[in-house]
Design brief:
Layout: H1 2-16, E1 31-34, E2 37-41, E3 46-57, E4 60-72, E5 75-91, E6 97-108, E7 113-124, E8 127-137, E9 142-146, E10 161-163
């Protein structure tokens, strides 16, 4: 039983080793998970963490009410997080931070992309994006924001909102 538990912990650390997508150093960092409850179904490859879940690996952090990790044959497939809201943050290799907030978050190991769903907001540098659905590709540093299909009455139609900060210019110090 103890050996099985140790193997499960090893599996969990390998599952999360690819979670940190923006910094190559993060994948070599240990994963620390805190939750009020953990349920592991090894046969199905599903690990469910509930209650004030905090996942930290290197410069990456996820805070949510529930985090579910899906794996197959010991290899990470995807991660979902739900909460009111879910908080995602990542320190990039260049030292800058990206962060996101939504009702639900999905991470796909194959594409290494983060998907924020439901009242989503995302910050990249000083730029802010909001919409019902925001997709972030950290390798391409690309953000795609959609209003989504949740529209109310004709006057209440949800829209994407983007605030772009101007780049600071280097000033000449010569007279």
């Amino acid at each position: 039983m103890r050996l099985k538990f140790l193997l499960l912990l090893l599996l969990m650390s390998s599952v999360f080793s690819v979670l940190a997508v923006a910094s190559s150093d993060d994948v070599r960092q240990p994963v620390h998970i805190e939750a009020d409850r953990a349920e592991i179904d090894e046969a199905l490859g599903v690990m469910t963490y509930t209650g004030h879940v905090v996942v930290v690996q290197g410069g990456m952090e996820i805070r949510a009410a529930t985090v579910v990790v899906y794996s197959k044959e010991g290899e990470l497939r995807r991660i979902t997080a739900q909460g009111q809201p879910v908080h995602y943050s990542q320190k990039r290799v260049d030292g800058k931070n990206v962060k996101g907030v939504s009702q639900r978050m999905e991470y796909s190991a194959g594409s290494k992309q983060v998907l924020l769903l439901g009242k989503a907001e995302f910050w990249q540098g000083g730029n802010r994006f909001s919409g019902n659905r925001i997709q972030y590709d950290p390798e391409a540093e690309r953000v795609i924001a959609n209003a989504g299909s949740d529209s109310g009455a004709e006057g209440d139609r949800q829209r994407v909102s983007v605030t772009l900060q101007p780049r600071s210019k280097k000033t000449d110090t010569q007279p």
